[in-house]
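Reopening: structure tokens for the pyridoxal-5'-phosphate complex, inputs below.
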Amino acid sequence: MRKIGVGDFIVTDLMREYVNDILETRRLSYGPYCRAFENQFAKLHSRRLGVLSNSGTSSLQVALQALKELHRWNDGDEVIIPAVTFVATANIVLHNKMKPVLVDVEHDYYGIDPEKIAHKITPKTRAIIPVHLFGMPCDMTSIMEIARAHDLEVLEDSCETAFATHYGVPVGSWGAIGCFSMYVAHIISAGVGGIAITDNPDYAVKMRSLVNHGRDAIYISIDDDDHLDRLELKEVVERRFKFESIGHSYRITEFEAALALAQLPDWEEMVKQRQYNAAYLTDELASLKDWLQLPSIRPRTTSSWMMWPFILREGDKWTLATFLEERGIETREMLRLTDQPCYTGFWNPDDYPVAKWMNEQGLYVGCHNGLTTDDLDYIVEAFEDYFK
Ligand SMILES: Cc1ncc(COP(=O)(O)O)c(C=O)c1O
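Re-run output (same inputs, fresh job):
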């Protein structure tokens, strides 16, 4: 049977070359591949600085912790997040001993609804975390306006989205810090990995320290004691086992960075293919729009289509999901958050009607660049057969 996964991993000659080079040089810890990926990825997203970690969640964790420490926020201060997102967004707020405050999402584009943010802001609100789901940018112009008016920091959870723009500006570069995931089936995929990008050197230094147990930023990589004069070396030797923050062991290796770096020369082609695939599915399934809410693109925005999301207007979504899965088409839920067992008693899922509707009726399938036109036709036929 044909298998249509939500993601794919395409191995290239460049990946083999980079990985073989690492095996040859035997440099595993933070080194030239990590540095090159940080610089190039940040630049492609209009930012100066990038800090790698071992996951998107780790990047979000250290990003919020850096903001909290540097701005001296208190435990219990509030962070606004959308009511539809992966659990990691809520969890990193809780792990930072802050309070996630949920705001419902937009009916059509599934981003945090800017019109509903203002009345959730209290004297304790410190930040907003917009989440760009499925490759689709949030309404960043409105969100930034609200943040400026209320003196809030914006930390973008762009784990599911890279190379997507709103008003021509890449998402992940609107707020103080933007975080991306390189987990399996993401836009850039290295197995595991995360990157935080920013223009603020203080944030970058703090995040890099937090990824490395919170150690003194004078010595983060094993190259940091090379080529120093005697006095400088003495200072590094004295300080390199000083820890300034209670940090984490969130380091990545050169292998993941090399796999990610090898994908960057192809990013435009990869995104174009995803855009083509998503448009193909949306066009070919237009006749089913009375049964399915098909994805739509926010004006003045480009999507990089990590996934192709849809909402079943009526009927049981599990019957549809099983029908597709029986045909080898992988499905996922549209990131149910509000009624997860781990958050019982945290909030009332009924207070977020759009999220509730998406929880009940929302699914996605893959539209990645590994799919052929035959694969796309196969998906279209499966949907058509179901609704026949
Ligand atoms: C919206 C969102 N935030 C955070 C994450 C966490 O990323 P990771 O799995 O790399 O920790 C994910 C994972 O896919 C995600 O979808």
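Residues 67 and 357 are 33 Å apart (CA to CA). Residues 13-265 form a domain with the Aspartate Aminotransferase; domain 2 fold (CATH 3.40.640.10). Marking as resolved unless the reporter disagrees.
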